[in-house]
Amino acid sequence: MINTVFKDGIFEGKVALVSGGGTGIGLRIAKELLHLGASVAIAGRKEEKLAVAMETLAEYGDRALSLMCNIREEDQVNACIDTVVEKYGKLDFLVNNAGGQFASPAESIKAKGWRAVIDTNLTGTFLMSQAAFNKSMNTNGGAIVNIIANMWNGFPVLAHTGAARAGVDNLTKSLAVEWGARGVRINSVALGAIHSSGLDNYDPESQKTFLEMTKKNKPYRFGTEAEASAAVTFLLSPAAMFITGETLKVDGGAPLDSPLFPNVDHGKMPAFDDK
Ligand code: ADE
Prior knowledge:
- By secondary structure, the chain is α/β, with parallel strands linked by helices.
- It has a single domain (15-252), classed as Rossmann fold.
- The chain is 41% helix and 15% strand.
- It has helices spanning 24-35, 47-56, 74-88, 111-140, 159-179, 204-216, 225-236, and strands spanning 15-19, 39-44, 64-68, 93-96, 142-149, 184-191, 247-250.
- α4 packs parallel to α5 (159-179).
- Bound molecules: adenine (ADE).
- Adenine binds next to α4.
- It catalyses: (2E)-tetradecenoyl-CoA + NADPH + H(+) = tetradecanoyl-CoA + NADP(+); (2E)-hexenoyl-CoA + NADPH + H(+) = hexanoyl-CoA + NADP(+); (2E)-decenoyl-CoA + NADPH + H(+) = decanoyl-CoA + NADP(+); (2E)-dodecenoyl-CoA + NADPH + H(+) = dodecanoyl-CoA + NADP(+).
- InterPro entries: NAD(P)-bd_dom_sf, Peroxisomal_t2-enoyl-CoA_red, SDR_fam.
- Its main location: other.
């Protein structure tokens, strides 16, 4: 069962779109928004994954919708937002969660791979946000949350996605200023290492490196999907009505840990998780 600290029904009448909503963190976010009363479209590239996800959303009936959409393709992005607006009449919330990358030393990244990662993580986020604004939020207002990463000290062996996510952090501020007067808030959530089914997309070596990560860094544990989703839900909620252009770090303080400072070790940080 999903665990939420938010009040029943707070998103009743709201319409949300979650990209990459078919699996992992995106699906967990979609479930929380549905649970709180919103209608939610999950968008993804893979029909089979969306179909499996929709089975888990059956209890929400017509309030859940799945849409095939490659966020790199402007036509597909426009069609996706059009479908949501046609079905539900508007779009209040956009969660730019879809992303993808592959681990590689910088010297070996080919231009094609570089462009693909920038296209998905930076351009895709821009295209989705622009379409959401032009097709609904410019007249109805709304809130956008972008999912980025803990790339504050660079992102070794993931230089392409580090650059793209840093770009989204900056885009968040530009859009917040440009669209604020239309009642649109744009924020980002910078996730640390979250244990999610998204990990299955990586090769075994990268998975091993990821799993080793928490042994070296406080808080000595992975974040949960519930913790990632809670931060997104907060930023969409009325509790964040005066927050825009901000990036909220959800990483257990991992980037603050430094070999330059004394080691203050209180052990593993407690977690918020689903029941
Ligand atoms: N998830 C990863 N890459 C994606 C893309 N290009 N479109 C939609 N979802 C994605």
